[in-house]
Amino acid sequence: LAVLKAGGAYVPLDPDYPQDRLAHMLRDSQAQILLTESALLSLLPAVESLKTLQLDAQPGWLDAYSLENPAPRATADNLSYVIYTSGSTGLPKGVAIAHRNVLALIDWSSRVYGTDDLQGVLASTSICFDLSVWELFVTL
User: Fold this and answer.
1) SS3 of residue 10 by DSSP
2) Which of 44, 53, 67, 101 has the smallest C-beta neighbourhood within 10 Å, fewest atoms?
3) Where are the beta strands (DSSP E) in the chain?
């Protein structure tokens, strides 16, 4: 959520994917920062020019930052995420989605489904599958 609010985009990675596929996704998307946890670091490929931030590497590293909720920097035209195809016909292809498209999905959902319906949504698919966007964000 912080990446999106800051105007950045995310590329969901499944550490169970083959290293070559993950490396291709990171290079092709031109990812600049890899956010991960120490336990997953060895499962992810090393990609030149990619900065890695281990969120759990140093306890308390966020303590010096403000607790204030910063204003959103994203616009509707900012890239929101890039999800990759299965790659069954060759290399996986990235599909880039802007914030406006996610907002349209959330708006549609709020008109079609009631609050009670949306509160019961389970996040049951992989974050690497586009349905996860609906499962995660419509409930928020």
Assistant:
1) strand
2) 67
3) 33-36, 51-54, 79-84, 94-98
Cα 79 to Cα 4: distance, rounded to the nearest angstrom: 9
Asked whether residue 61 carries a pLDDT value surpassing 90, the answer given is no
Residue that is written with structure tokens 């349209």 in the block: 104
Q: Kindly report, residue by residue over 72-129, the tens digit of the pLDDT.
A: 888 999 999 999 988 788 889 999 999 999 999 999 999 999 988 888 888 888 889 8
Of 119, 116, 100, which Cα lies nearest the Cα of 108? 100
The number of beta carbons lying within 10 Å of the beta carbon of residue 31 is 19
Instruction: Give the tokens for residue 36.
Output: 């991960």
Look at strands 51-54 and 33-36 and give their pairing: parallel
Q: Give the pLDDT confidence score for residue 105 in this predicted structure.
A: 94
Nearest alpha-carbon partner for 20 in 126, 95, 85, 91: 91
